[in-house]
Amino acid sequence: MTLDLPRDLPAALTDRTAAWRLIADLAAFWDAPLQPGDGRTDAELDAAEARLGLRLPAALREAHLLLGNRPDLTSNQDTLLPPEELYVDRDHLVYRVENQSCAYWGVPLAALDQDDPPTFVWPDAADPETAPWTARLSVECLAVVLTEPLFDEDAHADSGDVDPEYLTGWTELPPLHADGVAVRHLWRPDALLMLHEDEWLFARAVDEPTLGALREEIPAHWLNY
Q1: In terms of domains, do 99 and 130 share one?
Q2: I need a surface site. Which of 12, 71, 100, 164 has the fewest CB within 10 A?
Q3: Distance between CA atoms of 5 and 202, rounded to whole angstroms?
Q4: Residues 114 and 214 in one domain
Q5: Is residue 160 part of a domain?
Q6: What are phi and psi of 158, to 5 degrees?
Q7: Are 186 and 174 in contact (CB under 8 A)?
Q8: Domain range for residue 160?
Q9: Going by C-beta distance under 8 Å and a sequence separation of 6 or more, which residues neighbour residue 184?
């Protein structure tokens, strides 16, 4: 399948229906298309609401209905919490947890009446400060699906530290996160890169020969090469 992220991503940043469509396109691009049964059920989400005593935002429900059973797209590194594990902390509904519990992502309880509310992050359970993460929850879901497949150990993926000056010939995608979040995504039709803090590079290619060519092209200290 062909994919044109520079063309389709801007609309997905403001329209959650477009975000879900692009998520499905991304899954198909990685030869892992969404299938019936890949989502959680309305009954499971209703049970979560009853347990928590609150209403889940429409965007969170829609995301779980679409791909709540697809950890290969959502939870290779960090975990998109299933409905039965959603919880409340520091006046936020926590929906995602870092793999070593070093970061948490949540929606302010005061924003749960919004269909597509903003998201926030905090570094650990003891730190009281939260920081803006994405302007919309659907954008966060899209960011997850742009990022987590790059950590799939069974995919054509690798990572390593790199000098950003070597990343020429790539199209930088519009930022998904709030100002100050040092994450950049770069694209070309056969591969996706994510650069963290302008020094650590994650890459996924459409096949093994393309990944091999990337390793030769980009002088990173690749972990698996």
Answers
A1: yes
A2: 100
A3: 17
A4: no
A5: yes
A6: -160, 170
A7: no
A8: 156-222
A9: 172, 173, 175, 194, 195, 198
